[in-house]
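Colleagues,

Please find the record for the two-part complex below.
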Amino acid sequence: DVKVTQSSRYLVKRTGEKVFLECVQDMDHENMFWYRQDPGLGLRLIYFSYDVKMKEKGDIPEGYSVSREKKERFSLILESASTNQTSMYLCASRPGGAEQYFGPGTRLTVT
Amino acid sequence: AQSVTQPDIHITVSEGASLELRCNYSYGATPYLFWYVQSPGQGLQLLLKYFSGDTLVQGIKGFEAEFKRSQSSFNLRKPSVHWSDAAEYFCAAPNQAGTALIFGKGTTLSVSS
């Protein structure tokens, strides 16, 4: 079975802090994704990566950056967390096909 | 631009009754289409997928979906709902570049006894 893990299920951070969300997949997938999920808005793509050190902006990249130094790991970085970044963050990975496999999510609260 | 629409925000169904969740897409070519389910506080689990071929696809947990090109729809069905089916359901399709999925806003299913 594909396994996508996220480093934290719940995080509470203060405004202005730098926040790292980590995602690891164990299936050698080429593509990895970060989404945020908000009530009534569904899932929105923040960034994705199709190879090590390669990244592409999604629909809502402002306020975020990403890092992919190893194939199995894709990190989402909030350079200076703000309250409007309080959300559920979902990581996914994808092999050559189209379907994505999701991690359990990180619920981030910024106070 | 591609879009995925789930017209129903919230549906309540009695346990044992049948279920249909609606999904409409706008897509130029033959799409890949997916249904995912999310239990409270969890990530998304793939229920089923349509790539090509048979327009009626079977998934896990007794779900099925039918692709209707003429109606641009990919509705999810289950003949008899169980209380454990209460969750949020998302329909998805690839974006225009084929690099990621775009999701509908989701339908929350409640099951009454």
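The radius of gyration of chain A is 13 Å.

Comments are welcome before we finalize the supplementary table.
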